[in-house]
UniProtKB/TrEMBL annotation:
Example of a GO MF term: transferase activity
Pfam family, one: GST_N_3
Top-level division of the source organism's lineage: Bacteria
Taxonomic source organism: Croceibacterium salegens
Domain GST N-terminal: 11-87
Protein name: Glutathione S-transferase family protein
């Protein structure tokens, strides 16, 4: 059991002091959701094995009263199992399944693409002793130079914003993915958004009035403003240029968007889609 309510947390941060990794951000929120104080072990990318006594090359990692727990999912499972009387992160197995699907979708449409829009900044904002490792390893991972990968980001950012419509649709009906209060699904996606905020120094990534903003802002404000680190860059303020797709859409009208509350609620649509049709 956590001594003095404190858990040792191995951070992964940039020279700005801001946490960078989506996994590490999500875990920071998960620990706070459970009500713990963090004893943060600071550091960047190189020397993770040295910092962790040879236990891991990847972060997040925590030590709870002498017990090492690795991996963002491993930590969340451990916290819910070990502290069932504290607020639950994954209140039902379906939340884990759906969060994995949502996270994989978000990774494909946003986390990865935003990373490629900011990969030079990612390297340049890292601690100086991380630069060589980040350049080499990320170029190997992504198959191009960081400069080539980042080039043209201005044209890609609007497309990424436009692709987030499924999330906007969900959050139009619900304050959080967890319902009235956040759960791990919220923190998991927020982790990717905060990762982006730690590196998006060349441009914000979402419109000033993006419908996702109240959800994001409210999560950034939680736990004493955990997501308001001064080293983070503004997320909101992307402008739609000529030729760009709309950065977000108005509420839709089709069956997936609109509740059927009886014949009046669908009359206009039926009229529109049957106009000109021969009467039986
Ligand atoms: N499956 C692991 C993945 C963790 C991971 O890949 N962490 C990256 C940061 S995003 C890391 O520690 N990288 C260190 C490195 O690149 O050397 C988890 O969910 O915790």
């Amino acid at each position: 059991m956590a001594k003095d309510n404190t858990i040792t947390f191995f951070d992964l941060a940039l020279s700005t002091g801001a946490t960078i990794s989506p996994f590490v951000w999500a875990t920071k929120y998960a620990l706070k959701h459970k009500g713990f104080d963090l004893d943060v072990v600071p550091g960047g990318f190189t020397k993770i094995p040295e910092r962790t006594g040879g236990v891991t090359e990847r972060l997040p990692a925590i030590i709870d009263d002498g017990k090492w727990v690795l991996d963002s999912w491993g930590i969340v499972e451990y916290l819910d199992e070990t502290y069932p009387d504290r607020p639950t992160l994954i209140p039902h197995p379906s939340v884990a399944a759906m969060t994995r699907a949502l996270d994989a979708w978000f990774w494909g449409v946003a986390t990865g693409p935003w990373m490629r829009c900011n990969c030079v900044s990612y390297r340049d904002l890292a601690n100086a002793d991380d630069h060589e490792y980040i350049t080499y390893s990320r170029e190997k991972m992504l198959g191009q130079t960081l400069e080539a990968m980042q080039e043209g980001y201005e044209d890609r950012l609007p497309q990424i914003s436009a692709a987030l419509e499924p999330l906007r649709i969900a959050l139009r009906e619900s304050k959080y993915l967890g319902g009235d209060t956040p759960n791990y699904a919220d923190y998991r996606l927020l982790g990717s958004i905060l990762f982006t905020a730690s590196v998006c120094q060349n441009s914000p990534v979402l419109a000033e009035d993006d419908p996702l903003r109240p959800w994001i802002d409210s999560l950034l404000d939680m736990f004493g403003g955990l997501g308001r680190h001064p080293g983070l860059f503004p997320l909101f303020g992307l402008k739609q240029r000529e030729g760009d797709p709309p950065l977000f859409m108005p509420p839709g009208l089709g069956g997936i968007h609109k509740r059927n509350t009886g014949i009046e609620s669908t009359r206009a649509e039926t009229q529109r889609i049957t106009e000109g049709m021969a009467k039986a």
